[in-house]
Amino acid sequence: MSRDPLHVFLILFSLLVTLFSVVLCSLAYFADNSESTWFKNNKQDVASVYHTVITPSAWVNGLWGLIYLWQVTWILHHLYTICKKQADGYNEAISTGLVATYTLAISILNSAFFCYDRYYFIVYLPLLCITSLLFLTCLGIHVYNVSKLRREFFQTFRSNFVRRHVFFQNGMAFIFAWSGLEALLSLAVILVYQTGQTQNVSGVVSLSLLVFFMLISVLVENSFHEKFATYIFAHWLVVIWLLIGCLTENWDTSSATCIAVIVILCFSVVYFLSKSYLAMQRYRRIKIPHRSATVAQKYPSKNTMRGNEKSVKLRQQLQF
After folding, report:
1. What Rg do the C-alpha atoms of the chain give, in angstroms?
2. How many domains does the chain have?
3. Which end of the chain lies in a sparser environment, N or C, as judged by fewer CB atoms within 10 Å?
């Protein structure tokens, strides 16, 4: 399935769209109000005009660099595994539908940059919500595919599952969480500057939605999806990063919004550290599953291939 022409075309196209998104994000961040650029304002200019009590510091936007680096890395790695002669089951988890959904999400994200630059927050908000939902769909598809294929990762179980698949899943979690948090920031802007709500009301509404989604995440991660969500923790790093940026920009101990941000930040840090510790303990307890004859024939290990080569050479020497 991974070497299907349609799949190869989509993964190459997704790489081009992602690289184009990197260019757009760079232009949006470093725009200098010049008519020669595609963007009239940079992100900091927009944030200073439409400032709220939860607007983070400018350095928080630097997370876009890590997010795009992560996306380009998994796409290039996927292309590399497609070109490998020896299949190992890794490509099966990244299906054609997943790549198509990811490409659509990146394309919508590209259009959202222009809406933000033109102050079209009423359009920017739903675009970010759709983008975040699509990235979450990609994550869900991958987790589902891995749950079906994990028995096939026999002798390289640790390498394939914990390193490769968790790397991809956390990359999706990064961009999914950041898109969702950007949507909450945009909601605060709309409440203040387009509906006439106070700064405190907009901050409380956005933070309340953040707490709601965090509780859903905790519930999902510690219930029926605990087995597959143990190693997905990048979204908590994004939340911590944003909340720290909010505090450095809007530090005011007399503000209820600032106190709420501190409480949410403390909970996020404690939960992230606890989740990381449990993930490390679970990783150490991973056992290599039994390797059946069917799986061994489909995905031969390196040791098996070397043993077969030695057997062939030995038989050739005995014939002489």
Report:
1. 23
2. 1
3. C
In a domain, 307, yes or no: no
Residue with tokens 């190459």: 12
DSSP, collapsed to helix, strand or coil, labels residue 78 as: helix
Q: Is residue 109 part of a domain?
A: yes
| pLDDT digits 0-9 by tens, 277-307 | 887 877 676 554 444 444 444 445 454 444 4
pTM exceeds 0.70, yes or no: yes
Q: State pLDDT tens for residues 130-153.
A: 999 999 999 988 888 877 776 555
C-beta of residue 138 within 8 angstroms of C-beta of residue 101: yes
User: 10 Å Cβ neighbour count for 166?
Assistant: 19
Q: In this predicted model, what pLDDT tens digit does every residue of 162-213 receive, in sequence order?
A: 566 778 889 999 999 999 999 999 999 999 999 989 999 999 999 999 999 9
In a domain, 183, yes or no: yes
Cα distances (Å, whole numbers) of residue 242 to 35, 60, 127, 186, 190: 31, 7, 20, 14, 19
